[in-house]
Every structure is written in structure tokens, then in C-alpha cells.
Amino acid sequence: MTLPDKKLLWLALDRRPPGAAGALDGWTLCMARTLNEAERAVRTHACQVGLLSGLGPAADPAALDRFLGAHGGLVWLVLAAPGVLDRPEWRELVRTHAHDFHTEPADPRRLAYALGHAHGLALLHGHRAPASVAAHTELTGNSAAIARLRAQVARLGKSDAPVLIWGESGSGKDVTAQAIHAHSRRAGGPFVPVNCGAMAPQLIQAELFGHLRGAFTGAERDKAGLIESAAGGTIFLDEIADLPRELQSNLLRFLQEKTIYRIGSTRSISVDTRVIAASNVNLKQAVAQGKFREDLYYRLNVLPVTVPPLRERRDDLPELTDHFFRLYAADKPRHLKGFSGAALRAIASHDWPGNVRELINRIRRAMVLAEGRQITPDDLELAGADPAGAGDGLGRLRTAAERAAIGASLQRAGSNITLAARDLGVSRMTLYRLMSKHGIAAPK
Ligand SMILES: Nc1ncnc2c1ncn2[C@@H]1O[C@H](COP(=O)(O)OP(=O)(O)O)[C@@H](O)[C@H]1O
Ligand SMILES: [Mg+2]
């Protein structure tokens, strides 16, 4: 039996050359010093293991959390300077995404062992190269909302028009985009995700459209952009609202003419790439504020798709919970058999502001930490199914703030539920549920 090449992605955020080199014997190393470089590396190399170093003030925990969340297909190790893991944001990141961590300076022998172990784990799990999207294209859930979404995905696969996916963070926009791609005639072509919010504005143009050699300092050779590299397939522009205005024009031109210009070139190249965009902010509002081009908005919004927040499709919770428990079963202690009734009730009554991503994170964490045969609300770090959610100090504050915000909105809206819901950015159903949770009477 031949084992696949051992490929390691080293994301060194402090840009320092890697030490502990002895630990890397036998590995093919892909170095990345920024999230952009790492995104590219993940797309082009089938690395099984990721090593993250350089956590500190210069790194952005939220962007990293998104990146690692999107690339959970790799087994991640963290190499941290002393003291870094005393900071709650980094502890949380490591707890959520890392399989193991080491303090610098790392002992090369221990690190080599840990990397080998991570590689074995990756093979065991059948972690796939992220290029194969098949593993992520199924929308799990049996609520009416998910059934509608699945039907919509199948329909959208038949078209070639742009799609705009709207949904809160963690609700499943990426999976939905991948599912649309997988159901389209482009399924055999590349699926190229780009996070418009995670890239420096001055880099996005070169990344998306490519450049000629010498087009700017550092452009040492001609390079195709991501739109070109997605030819025959789909480019997924996540957080499209963050696309700088100048680039909105370029994108619009691409959507209208199906051609692009690399930076520094006057020659147009025609490219057959489908665009799927996603946003977690209200783009229409961004248009009203002059931050987003109206013509681009209409162009993208030909086929709008909404992924509802998890709290509005609670019927999905049992199936999703079961799905993720089985998905991560290889990490769990042998004695762990499932969830306690109290845990399931806590899951059912939690509000899931972080949506499916939060559910995954809580379940993964609980599966590693649980000491008994069953996962408890404590393992999930959820207060028991107390309807007011007033377990700890923060929970109480949050509950009070929520109640106050709802009260204020209802008052402003003259008790008009539709207006108040819009004001709060939730659906009417959610507002009704929140009112009942807080014992606020519905207007007559
Ligand atoms: N319906 C679903 N079935 C299975 N997994 C899901 C579903 N919705 C979301 N996920 C998973 O939850 C995580 C967050 O989803 P993602 O699509 O990245 O959210 P978003 O792009 O809206 O922030 C991903 O790991 C994704 O695979
Ligand atoms: Mg996403």
C-alpha cells in the first residue's frame, strides 16, 4: 500500500522562517505567511495537516476562526509563544480548532511525533483534500425550510446566472454555494471560494483579476486571477459587501461581458466562470447607504437565496446534532455514547446566534471534554434548559439586553410586529418567540 505524500501547510503569521526544522523530515512543506496565501495553498495542495504559528497581537482572531472553520478538513496543530495561550481569544481558537498545541521553542522530537500523529489521524478520518467538495455539499436537516432550500439548490444548479446567498454567519452559505455548484453542469470544474472581507483591498483586484509581470512592484511574473482559475466552474465571493467600490465596477463588467482584464493588460480575456456571491449583511441597505453599487446588486440578485438562521428551523437540531456527533466520532473517548436528555433540551432551547458553526463547535468541544457516558449541558457550555437563559452573569446581561431591545423596538414601532421585527433584523416568528420567552404580551 502506498500512503499519500505527507503534506504540511505551515501558516506562520509572524512571518518568521520556521524553526524546529528537524521535525519536518519526510514532509512536503507549503509555507504561508498570510491567510490569503494559506487560502491559495489549501486550494492548490492537498495538505492533510496544518501547523499554525505566530498567534499574537498582529493576528486577527475572528478572521482566523473563519479560516480554520472553513478548513476543518486539515488536522491543525498550534505552535504558540509562551504566554500567548493565556489570552482568552487564542485559548478559544485552539480549543475550537486545534487537535494539539505546543509551546515555543518546540522540542523537534515531540513536534515530529505530534505531526506524525496528526497525519495518521487525518488518514484515519479520511480527511479529504478540500478540492473535493463532495463531502460538504449535503445540507443536513429535515425542517421545511431546509427542504425548500434543497429544492431551490437543485433548481439553481440548472441555471448559469449569478446567485446571491443571504444568511447570518455560520448558517450554511458556504455549504449552500457548494451544493449549487455540485448540482450544476460545472460540478466537474473548480469551486473557488474567495473571502472578500479577509483580503486587503489593494490585493483583491490582483487576486481576482490577475496581473501582468511588472504591473506593480512585486509582480514578478504574469499571473492568472481567481476568476480565471475558476473557469469551467464556480467562483464563490463570500462577504461580497466588503468588495471595494472600484472592484464592484470590474465585477459588474465581468458579469455583463464575461471578460476580464488582468492588471496592466489591455487585452480582454473571456472567461466562463459562474459567480455565486454571499453576504451576511443586508446588501439593499448597503446600496441605500451608497456603499454598494445598485446595478451590481440587481445583477447579482437575479436568483436570491436565503439560508434561514438555525433558531428559525429548530426542527433541524436533532438531525444536525446526530450528524455532527457521528462526523466527529473518531475524536471521542470510547465511553461516550451520546447526549443526555438535559443536553438535548438545552440544545433545543438555545438561541444559536452563531448558527450551525456554533453547534459544531459546541459539539466538538463537548465530545473531547465529556467525562461521563453522556454529554451534559455543562459539556456543551450551555445553561440547562432554563427558559430565561439566566445561568451565568453574562447570560443574565444578554437576556436583559435582549428584553430591553425588544421592548424599545416594539415601542418605536407602535407595537407593530412587522415593523419591530424588521427593526431588530429578525423574522416575525422569531420576534414572537422572543416575546414569549421574555413574557412580553403580544399587542391586541
Ligand atoms: N445544513 C447543514 N448541514 C450540514 N452541515 C452544515 C449545514 N449548514 C452548515 N453546515 C456546516 O456548518 C459550518 C458553517 O457553515 P458555512 O456554510 O461555512 O456557514 P456560513 O458560510 O454561512 O458562515 C460548516 O462547517 C458547514 O459545513
Ligand atoms: Mg462562509
UniProtKB/TrEMBL annotation:
It holds the Pfam family VpsR. Residues 139-368 form the Sigma-54 factor interaction domain. SUPFAM superfamilies: Homeodomain-like, P-loop containing nucleoside triphosphate hydrolases. Gene3D superfamilies: 1.10.8.60, Homeodomain-like, P-loop containing nucleotide triphosphate hydrolases. Keywords: ATP-binding, DNA-binding, Nucleotide-binding, Transcription, Transcription regulation. InterPro entries: AAA+_ATPase, AAA_lid_NorR, Homeodomain-like_sf, HTH_Fis, P-loop_NTPase, Sigma_54_int, Sigma_54_int_dom_ATP-bd_2, Sigma_54_int_dom_CS. It comes from the Bacteria. This is Sigma-54 dependent transcriptional regulator.
